[in-house]
Automatic annotation (TrEMBL):
Its cofactor is FMN. Residues 196-249 form the Pyridoxine 5'-phosphate oxidase dimerisation C-terminal domain. Catalyzes the oxidation of either pyridoxine 5'-phosphate (PNP) or pyridoxamine 5'-phosphate (PMP) into pyridoxal 5'-phosphate (PLP). Keywords: Flavoprotein, FMN, Oxidoreductase, Pyridoxine biosynthesis. Homodimer. The keyword Cell inner membrane does not apply. One of its GO terms (molecular function) is FMN binding. It holds the Pfam family PNP_phzG_C. It catalyses: pyridoxine 5'-phosphate + O2 = pyridoxal 5'-phosphate + H2O2; pyridoxamine 5'-phosphate + O2 + H2O = pyridoxal 5'-phosphate + H2O2 + NH4(+). Its EC number is 1.4.3.5. It comes from Pristionchus mayeri. This is Pyridoxine-5'-phosphate oxidase. It is an enzyme of class 1 (oxidoreductase).
Length: 250
């Protein structure tokens, strides 16, 4: 029995290393670690996000690690969802780029509440983040714009995001025009348009989800609002002031 246990634990650690997930003695038969409150490296949701994100970044390609589903709701209650690319994040929130006149841009102008979903199937993990979206200052938006390759800046100008166009050739023709302008005028021809900018989602809620094969998934949440529950013992203090920690049923 001792030999079998040693072999099992050895395989568990190998599987955990291959996914870049810390091994945990409390795990199921398929080597998916349970997400236990006492085993968390931190009870600060921003720091825990960074821990999970760094584990993913070490393994996955850039766009797979940084692609995030972003959901908005119009003033009349109609939701819409799309994938965006996370540009950066810190304790202020999650930054991405958009055209202010796009569908998401106009919806956010009327209703700044939004949600992000990071899903990493190789890790059987997802993180939900909900909060309010603000525009970054113009100088920060310009810095984000200038950090993009010139070809991406040209594409950003050529495509009036979310507007109706006749065909693909329309975009390609506009792109060639702008490439010629950059050739003759320099990169000034690819300056940031006033309709383009950087947005930041400032979180009010995090949910860390660890998938399990038997459907008893782990869901540990952090919120600035105390959940409505009959038992105060179910809500725990977070390491971040003003935030509450609790578990949801799968």
């Amino acid at each position: 029995i001792a030999i079998i246990l040693r072999l099992f634990r050895s395989r568990l650690h190998v599987a955990a290393r291959s996914m870049n997930i810390p091994a945990d003695n409390s795990s199921n038969a398929n080597n998916r670690p349970f997400l236990l409150e006492e085993s968390l490296p931190t009870k600060d949701p921003f720091k825990l996000f960074d821990v999970w994100k760094q584990q993913v970044t070490d393994v996955l390609p850039f766009e797979e690690a940084n692609g995030v589903s972003f959901s908005t709701v119009s003033e009349d209650g109609r939701p819409s969802c799309r994938m965006v690319l996370l540009k950066s994040y810190d304790e202020d929130g999650f930054v991405f780029n958009t055209n202010y006149t796009s569908r998401k841009g106009t919806q956010l102008s009327g209703n700044p509440n939004a949600a992000m979903l990071f899903y990493w199937p190789r890790f059987h993990r997802q993180i939900r983040v909900e909060g309010v979206v603000d525009r970054l200052a113009e100088d920060a938006a310009i810095a984000h714009w200038n950090s993009r390759p010139v070809s991406s800046r040209i594409a950003g100008i050529a495509s009036a995001q979310s507007t109706v166009i006749p065909d693909r050739q329309y975009l390609e023709h506009r792109q060639r025009e702008l490439e010629q302008e950059v050739t003759t005028q320099g990169e000034v021809a690819a300056a940031k348009p006033p309709t383009w900018g950087a947005l930041i989602l400032r979180p009010r809620y995090f949910e860390f989800w660890q998938g399990q094969t038997n459907r008893l998934h782990d869901r540990i949440c952090f919120s600035t609002e105390r959940p409505d529950t009959d038992s105060a013992d179910f809500v725990r203090p977070s390491d971040r002031p003003g935030w509450h920690m609790f578990r949801l049923a799968s």
